Amino acid sequence: MSADSLSLALELIQGFEGCRLRAYRDVVGIWTIGWGETLGVSEGMVWTQQRADAVLRLRVEHFLLAVLARCPALHLEPPGRVAACTSLAYNIGLGAFGASSVCRLTMRQEFVGAADSFLLWNKAGGRVIAGLSRRRSLERKMYLET
């Protein structure tokens, strides 16, 4: 795992997730806390900033390694490409990332098509979300920068 990829992924995710230390329901009603954490979150939970930051780092490390396992072609790609895919997977889930055209086209080294496929993941609850559209555009840009 590249330290550059991890740093870029953390920065990208933090920029879009924002941090809330009290559990809240996201746009589709899922309990969330910290930097977009949903695992084991329930109503009434409260975290410290230190806990939110530590959980984010651990989860992003996990996601980065899992993205590389699902899309081994990324091992040879620039840190920004790995970070963009890690950010996407953190937001949509590892299963969805592994089945995505982003992963599939990356494996075939069809990088422009893979980059364009980021833009397909801009919906939550069946509707386009402006924040997701901005996030996907930035991930696409980062993916293409080498």
Task: Provide structural commentary.
This protein has 146 residues and is mainly alpha-helical. The chain has a domain at 3-16 and 57-144: Lysozyme (Orthogonal Bundle). The chain has helices at 3-17, 49-70, 79-92, 94-99, 101-107, 111-118, 130-144; strands spanning 20-25, 31-34, 123-124, 127-128.
Q: Structural class of the helix and strand makeup? A: mainly alpha
Approximate strand percentage: 5-15%
Order of helices and strands: HEEHHHHHEEH
Helix content: 55-70%
Tell me the overall shape.
Answer: globular
Count of beta strands:
4
CATH fold-level label of one domain: Lysozyme
Which strand order does the major sheet show? 1-2
Q: Report the end-to-end length measured between terminal Cα atoms.
A: 17 Å
What is the C-level CATH assignment of one domain? Mainly Alpha
Most strands sheet: 2 strands, antiparallel
What is the oligomeric state here?
A: single chain
Task: Lay out the secondary structure.
Blueprint: H1 3-17, E1 20-25, E2 31-34, H2 49-70, H3 79-92, H4 94-99, H5 101-107, H6 111-118, E3 123-124, E4 127-128, H7 130-144
Antiparallel strand pairs: 1-2, 3-4
Helix pairs in contact: 1-2, 1-3, 2-3, 3-7, 5-6, 6-7
Quick description:
The protein is mainly alpha-helical and 146 residues long. The protein contains seven helices and four strands. The relative contact order is 0.15.
